[in-house]
Amino acid sequence: MSDRVDLWWDRLGWDLTEVILCKLPLRSMIRASAVCKAWRAVLLQLKQQHKQPWLFVFLQGHNNRLLGLGVGRTAFAYDPRDDAESWVSFNLPPDCFAGSAGIAFSLDSSRRLSLAPLLLVGDSSWTTSINTKTPPLASSLCNCNPVVGLVGGAVVVVVAGGARLVGGLVDMNEEPLTTEVLEFDDDCCWRREQCAAALPSLSLSEPRSSALVAGGRLFFVCDTSSCTVSAFDLSRRAWTPPRRLRPEPGLVAAFLASGRGGHRLVLTGVVEEDHRTFRVWDVDPSTMTTTRIGDMPPEILASMMPFGSLRCVGEDGLLYVIADDRHRAYPACACELVAGDGQYDMPTSCTWKKLPPLPQPLISRFHKINAFSSSVLHNLPNMYKY
């Protein structure tokens, strides 16, 4: 790269450079770094986090090895900033079940939790600076899909619940959520703390959603069918009393997400009234009062039925709704909350957008879908080819 190009980037400054690059689709930056030395040199020095969360979908077949799909889980990612509006295909780590704050979580048969950056290849920063495998989780129940949350800054992982697999099937256990906090300390090792379980209103067998608010201090968990919500307070290492968060009697399935900047909560769900709809509410995390924001437009709603298959994930004021319906190619849409003049004001409306269909050739090979939403950490020149 010439001295003149070096000088140009130096004049721009890294703060402004990061702001500009965060506005660009990831696909465009990868292409630019592949053909332009100046772009590649700049991106090699930049390890940024795309603030707007992506939608990650991984499809589970009966046997990925027999299908020739590799050891990891075949997954698709949707970049909301990409004008091409297409999905990126890649492999998640083996046994991956969730993601948060740019990190993929996996749980092996020995109950050890593994952490790996999403969409990151060839970068040894996590393997050299942090032991990515935690000590075995204390609970014998955590063999399948616990709820996890990663608190930024300090590496603190909250693990709540999880079910036991018996003969390949989930054990329908009604015990309360077990809770552990895993913290990576200054001595470069994991410190584990087992905390009090949640009250019985939050059980292990219920499908759940979660959200981090108040700077990561409060980790909210919501039972989908009962609409029961409780928060784990990281400062007190204790759960708040569970309460039913049902702003309307017709709410039959609820999902929780974080609002913009993690200052507020967002509640979404299927409402059965004169006609079924999918509704969005703002939630004040300190009082748990709700304010209706809006409904999914009828034309998008019609493409998302049946409602029993819907799942909503999201964070930072961007929500994704996806239907677990293979025959309809897993339709999905995005909902962006629109706030007032202030950055963290209560949202007053929402805009909806239908997502492009998932790639058809791979869809027919799978029988189950999982989804999560997360921001993305990346080192662009080392990423997979799109």
UniProtKB/TrEMBL annotation:
<dbReference type="InterPro" id="IPR015915">
    <property type="entry name" value="Kelch-typ_b-propeller"/>
</dbReference>
<dbReference type="GO" id="GO:0031146">
    <property type="term" value="P:SCF-dependent proteasomal ubiquitin-dependent protein catabolic process"/>
</dbReference>
<protein>
    <recommendedName>
        <fullName>F-box domain-containing protein</fullName>
    </recommendedName>
</protein>
<dbReference type="Pfam" id="PF00646">
    <property type="entry name" value="F-box"/>
</dbReference>
<dbReference type="GO" id="GO:0004842">
    <property type="term" value="F:ubiquitin-protein transferase activity"/>
</dbReference>
<feature type="domain" description="F-box">
    <location>
        <begin position="9"/>
        <end position="43"/>
    </location>
</feature>
<dbReference type="InterPro" id="IPR001810">
    <property type="entry name" value="F-box_dom"/>
</dbReference>
<dbReference type="InterPro" id="IPR036047">
    <property type="entry name" value="F-box-like_dom_sf"/>
</dbReference>
